Amino acid sequence: MKIQFDGALSYQQEAIDAIVDIFKGQEKCESNFTVYSPSFLAQQQNLEFNETGYGNRLTLTEGKILENVQNIQLGNGLKPSIRGEVNRNELDFTVEMETGTGKTYVYLRTILELYTKFGFSKHIIVVPSIPIKEGVFKSLQITKEHLRELYDNVNYNFFVYDSSKLNEVRDFATNDRLEIMVINIDAFSKSFENPSDDKKSANIIHRYNDSLGYKPLDLIKNTNPFIIIDEPQTTMSTALRKKAVQNLNPLAMVRYSATHKEKVNLMYKLDAVDAYQKKLVKQIEVGSVQTEGANTQAYIRLLEIKLSKGFPTAKLELDIFKQGSVSRKAVWVKQNDDLQELTDRDEYEGFIVKDIYGVQGNEYIDFTSREEIIRLGEAIGNVDDRQVKTALISKTIEEHLDKEIILNPQGIKVLSLFFIDTVSKYRMYDEDGNVTNGEYAEIFEKEYLKLIKKPKYNSLFGEIKDIESTVSQIHNGYFSIDKKAKSSNKKEKFEYFKDTSGNTNADEDTYNLIMSDKEMLLSFDSKLRFIFSHSALKEGWDNPNVFQICTLKEAGNSEIRRRQEIGRGLRLCVNQEGERVYGHEVNTLTVMATESYVDFVDNFQKEIETETGIKFGVLASHSFSDVVVEIINIEDEEGNPTTDTIYLGQEKSVELFNHLVAVGYIDACGKVQDTLRIALKDGEVNLPEEFTENPQVVNQIINTLKETAGRLEIKDASKKQLVKVNKMILDSPEFRELWERVKFKTTFSVNFDSEKLVKQCINAIDSQLKITRGKLTYTKGTLTMDAGGVGVSNVVNESETLYGEVERLPDIIGYLQNETQLTRKSIVKILTGTNRLRHFKANPQKFIEGCVDIINEQMRMHIIDGIKYQRLGDAEFYSQELFENKELFGYLQSNLKESSKSPYTHVVYDSNIESKLAQQFEESKNISVYAKLPDWFKIDTPLGTYNPDWAVMWKDKDEEKLFFVVESKGSTGLFDLRPKEQAKIDCGKKHFTAIGSEMIVATSVEDVKNFVLK
């Protein structure tokens, strides 16, 4: 099959025009120079063997180039370059295009356009690495027929620079046709700074060559080549490399990447957000495999290291015991921090931080008294690693098969890619070269054969008689190959896969194989669908029909970049005719992760911000420059009708930006504030009058604001209100009388029967404790992305139980003693008395957490039975002046209700029940004053402080006054409440009894009336 190319994609044409139009007005011409024959240079004769060299020639003035550049940037909504940034002698431009959107295709088309329009015939593509070099060369090969059709069968030549084929460099200089050279930066970045350096330390390109009669570099420089820099953040990562590129004597240089470190004269931008929203790349799903309820070992994952002027710090993910349960949290640690103290878990005994080593590429942390060394991204103490890897492989296969059911009938072949760090995990060899499956290949075949037996996959495998005999044909490895002698016969050699760095000669052969097999892998004629490859070869993979990517990272390796991983499968897929298929309903890439999808999304957004410079939720002063004001009809230079677009422009964009800052919609750095989100939500955005006259202009501005503001849910800060004191009520005799009945403080004491408590705990554990084993949970969510940030939607979950013995049981008696404050003797009685202790080994941590909850609940109930409150002295009370001294805030549209009978002008309510009750208090003729008790009004209980809801004065028809406190929970039945809430209310009742008042539970005035009439 052949991959088909579409030459009419508008975004690619815009990217091409962004560079070609820089030279609008350029004459179509060339520069000529003489290339002498080696014999002439030696003997000053044989003139007939000399040749003419052909190079590029620029005729435009610097002013005209700057004018063109600014017009292009204006139309593309980019910050305009200024005089001094565009230098005619060092033309340098940038194109930003997201991975998978056709960056290579765009710059190849740009080269053809520059040649056909302006005669620029000499072009060099500089690449940073072997895999990218092979990828570019493959693109030149497969686009040749397509490009010749687009450009009237134009004749052009392309080649990869090879120091053993220097005649190609001479041809590059002397051919009058279009010439394209692909060269690795390492081929010419050594020792060029010393023109007389012909030592072997220098690249061959810098050395004089007898057969050429020149240094190869000198021939190249004479052509004044147009330079394309592929991935400049790597290609020109050092000052030496930048100098090497400039030494090529370029007419102009254009940088192409998705992740520029430096954006010089940015001409076109199609970033990660743009590409995702326009569906120019695959939709991304992240599938996360996580463990739950299996916290039986010292789990530690190294997330991040920070180096500062002081001591380095490390961010660790740990299992922390708090309030009766273990939860996985990230904490920052420094040298000498004791993880046992930080986590309150004995499993971390001996894990005292020793060294935090932050050298890039070799980050790790180690500990005193422990042998473990944990590298960046690595974790120890998780469940059996094989179980996690099995789950990852199994879910990848299942996602693959599910997609095949949908995509196979559409002629789209599904591929899955597994990246591993050790070849032996996939394939092993004995001394004579006999092949056996490694661990991952064994897991794959077992899980694959198990999954395809599901009835839902009958349509895929109905005609295959013996699936087991063909399973080895559906997966294979792409690794670098070496040879070694057989043990039984030293004269015979066998080939074997080997681990490599990704930059060796053996790797170059592997990249060639990957590229040459690209079309083969897309065809149904090939049974190969699951591919295992070395993680070091990641850059070489760029197949459009990769729909699943699973990285089976081994311990001890640095963290894999999520964008690098995702980039391998972002391209839109092709069908059996080689045609690109569009739409996210077809194009969805599933990335398997061992971190939670929430962490994946958070880290993915951070990587986008770090690598691309995108600032989510931030406007720039040029954000509105490309707003279209008017499209007018004009005639071109030849009198043909055409159109011209009038844009808002940079000056007006800055003016609008400054206005948004002035009204508080954004800060001085352009970061969107909640005030803008509120205005957008209410449809009341404040814009200067001159920007509101044209509805089309307004719509474009509002759309830009909405995209940047994102989808964040906010509280209406503009409606936040300080609640004022109602002095008339606060100072009234009736309220003072009410306050006198409720203001006093108390203390409490507790008596209880420990033997009775032990029996209650045993009975409760036997009847209530439910223990399940740990689980592997698979969570999948679809990434959302816009100018406001990265999010996730459509989250689904499924889980499977973990089986296996726990290596080390925690000290259950010590845990329970610490968390319940019961004596060791009582704990032992409870554990030996219950029938549930046999479940302890199934899931020790869950067993402990369950026992803590049940014992504490029984203690609460038991304590309440024996609690006694006593009023403190007359001087211990809540002062009425606190209503004036303590500020109270609420939100007008969500939790404030006007009041004429309480000490505040508004009641701040916490629920619909409280809102309705406040309204009834206002309307009731029997209630003259009441108060929603503020949060500073607290009653001490053994279960923590308690804040009752209301203080109420009731007058009956005979003007008799009753004073009481009302608790308005969601039910009038105490047994419908949670035990802790119920116990606190019981304590509250005893408190108010001790100070001579009463407390009731009510949800309406009718409930209060019924209480009064009893």
Automatic annotation (TrEMBL):
Domain Helicase ATP-binding: from-to ranges: 4-287
Keyword Nucleotide-binding: yes
Coiled coil spans: none
Segments passing through the bilayer: none
Gene3D superfamilies the UniProt entry points to: P-loop containing nucleotide triphosphate hydrolases (3.40.50.300)
A GO MF term: DNA binding
UniProt keyword terms in alphabetical order: ATP-binding, Helicase, Hydrolase, Nucleotide-binding
Pfam families: RE_endonuc, ResIII
Name of this chain's protein: DEAD/DEAH box helicase family protein
Lineage per the UniProt record: Bacteria, Pseudomonadati, Bacteroidota, Flavobacteriia, Flavobacteriales
